[in-house]
Amino acid sequence: MPDKPSRVSVEERLFSLVLALIATEIGLTKAEILSTVQGYRQRYAVGGDNASLERQFERDKDDIRELGIPLETVEPPEESGSNHHLRYRIPKGLYELPADVSFSADELMLLKLAATVWREGSLSGESRRALTKLNSLGVDSTDPVLGYSPTLRVRDASFEPLSKAMDRGQVVSFQYLKPGEGMPRRRRVAPQAVVLHEGRWHLFGTDKEAEGTRTFLLSRIVGPVVTVPGVTFVPGGEGKGQEALAELDTLWRANLAEITVEPGSDAAVRLSKRQAALPNHDQGESILALHYTDLDLLADELAGYGPEVLVRSPAALRTAVLARLTQVRDAHTEAFTDHTAEKEGTE
C-alpha cells in the first residue's frame, strides 16, 4: 500500500509556486506546474482526473496576484486561443528593485547575510528538490532566484497551533474578539481547515457551544490557542478546506458594496483593481462595485482613504465607515484640546 502523501501547508505551496514561476523565463504550463511543484505534485494523477487540483491552482493564482506578485499568462503565438498550452511566469523585471535604488557596501553585506538566513531557514528540502526537477523541464534554475523572496502575508500567531491541533484531531480553545464587542469571548472549536481567502487566513471548524460549523478570522483571535485536554475529533480531511473556501466564495459574491471614489486618487487606483469602475460622466466621479466577505474589514479599509471615498450602499457599511471617521475626528479633537489647555497653563 503506497504511503499517504505528506501534508503541505498553503504557505509552502504558494512559496514553491512563486519560486518556480520566477525561475523560468519562458513560463510553465499548468501540467508542468501540477506535476512538479511542491504542494501539487503529491496529489497529481498522471493521465487521471486532476480537476480539483486545477481548481486549487486557479485559487492560488488569485491569491498570488492579491499579494502584489506580478503573475503573467503567456499565450504561444502558434497556438492562439488554446488554454491547454498557456504558460505562467513571474517576470523578474517587474519583481526586482527599481534601477535608481542603490546600497552602500555595509548595507549590501547585511542584505547578503539576511539572504543567507532566508535560504537556509525558509527553503525546505522539498523546495530544494523542486529546483532540480525544474532543470528536467529545461528551466535554468542556477540563477540566485532565492534573492526574490516572495512577499507572502505573514501568518498570524495562531496559525501554527491551529494547524497542529487540526492534524492531531485536538479540540482547541481561544479568546475571540468580534467587531463591536468590548471583550473577547472564549470559543471551543474542532479545527477542520485553515484557508487563505482574499489575502486573509480563516479557521473553519465546529463550534462546540453553537454545535455547528463556523468560520473565524485568525486576526481576531486574541491571546494563545490552547488544546482542550482529553477532547478529540476525527479530522475531515482536504474536503473541509474546499467546503470552507466554497462558503467564503458564496458569502463574497452575495455581499456587494457600491462606493464613489475621487478620480485619480489613491483610493481610485487601488480599489479599481478589484472591480471595474463605472464612470459617472455627469458628476465626474467613478462608481465602483466591490464584493466583500466581512463588512467591518471593508469599513476599516475604506475609512483609511478618508475623503477619497463615499459609501453609497449598503447602509450598514456607510454607518460603519462614518463611525470610524467620527472616532478618529473625536480622538484628534480631544488631543488638540488637551494640548491647547496644557500650553495655556504654562504661559
Overview in brief:
Residues 265-327 form the WCX domain. The chain is α+β, with helices and mostly antiparallel strands and 347 residues long.
**For the largest beta sheet, what order do the strands appear in spatially?**
7-6-5-4-8
Number of domains as seen in the coordinates: 3
Order of helices and strands: HEHHEEHHHEEEEEHEHEEHEH
Distance between the termini: 86 Å
Please, what is the average pLDDT?
76
Question: How would you describe the overall organization of this protein?
Answer:
- This protein is of the alpha+beta class and 347 residues long.
- The protein folds into 3 domains: 10-147, no CATH class; 159-247, SH3 type barrels (Roll), CATH 2.30.30; 255-338, Alpha-Beta Plaits (2-Layer Sandwich), CATH 3.30.70.
- 41% of the residues lie in helices and 22% in strands.
- The protein contains 10 helices and 12 strands.
- It has helices spanning 10-23, 30-36, 51-66, 105-122, 125-136, 159-168, 238-254, 266-271, 295-303, 315-346, and strands at residues 28-29, 72-74, 87-89, 170-176, 185-197, 200-207, 212-217, 221-232, 256-261, 277-280, 285-291, 309-313.
- The strands form 3 sheets. Strands 7-6-5-4-8 form a 5-stranded antiparallel beta sheet. Strands 10-11-9-12 form a 4-stranded antiparallel beta sheet. Strands 1-3-2 form a 3-stranded antiparallel beta sheet.
- Strand 6 and strand 7 (212-217) form a beta hairpin.
- Helix 9 (295-303) crosses helix 10.
- The longest helix has 32 residues, at 315-346.
- InterPro entries: CBASS_pafABC_assoc_protein, WCX_dom, WYL_dom.
- It holds the Pfam family WYL.
- Residues 265-327 form the WCX domain.
